[in-house]
User: What shape does this take?
Amino acid sequence: MTIKTILFDLYGTLIDIETDESMEEIYRGIAHYLTYQGIYLHRWEVRDRYYQIMKQQKEIRGEEYPEIDVEAIWNTFLRQQGIKAAPTRRKLSTILAQIYRGISRKRLQLYPDVKKVLDELRSAYCMALISDAQPGYALPEIKAVGLAGYFDPIIISAHYGFRKPDRRLIEKALENMKLMPAEVICVGNDMYRDIFGASRLGIKTIFFDSNQGEKYHENVTPDYVAHRFEDVLRGVEALK
Assistant: This one.
């Protein structure tokens, strides 16, 4: 079959990001912000309650590869703290999630030649995105690095409660685009989550050997290895 669409992973493939969620400043900043909402907690109380709710959320979902919803975590947190109005909780949940991400984020940039490669590919192919991510993080960050408008659909794991290598995320993208596995190529940086996940559906794969992600998974071999992002073009040409 003719290749019609290139499926991309986001973080570690297109976006070079570094975060540190162990930083004390995250929980101090959120604890200080919460005082303006009438909630008075020590930063470690904020941290411990956040992780407790996260654990409960994963257990309730019962997925093999569970994905969290950080805005839902903060919504539950706020409800437990007596914020009763649902619209207020939803708004504050987004704010808290983005404060958390903003403080923990150390680096956010595209890998070299990403836009050059994408510009060349989109003249001949549709492009879609499948990411283990939170919409409140990923969508603004896609815009911040200049990638808004490149991908349709954008499949974000937090919307579904499970993450890669769960095959359902790719299946949702294929269903949305009305395509068969043989009509797409998957590009990712993680041998387990991206390459193994796609290969289970019979999809051709390009492994981008970036500074992030699992480099080896037993009995998994990509169809092409790109050591630089510009090599993705050669990979597509070889596999099409």
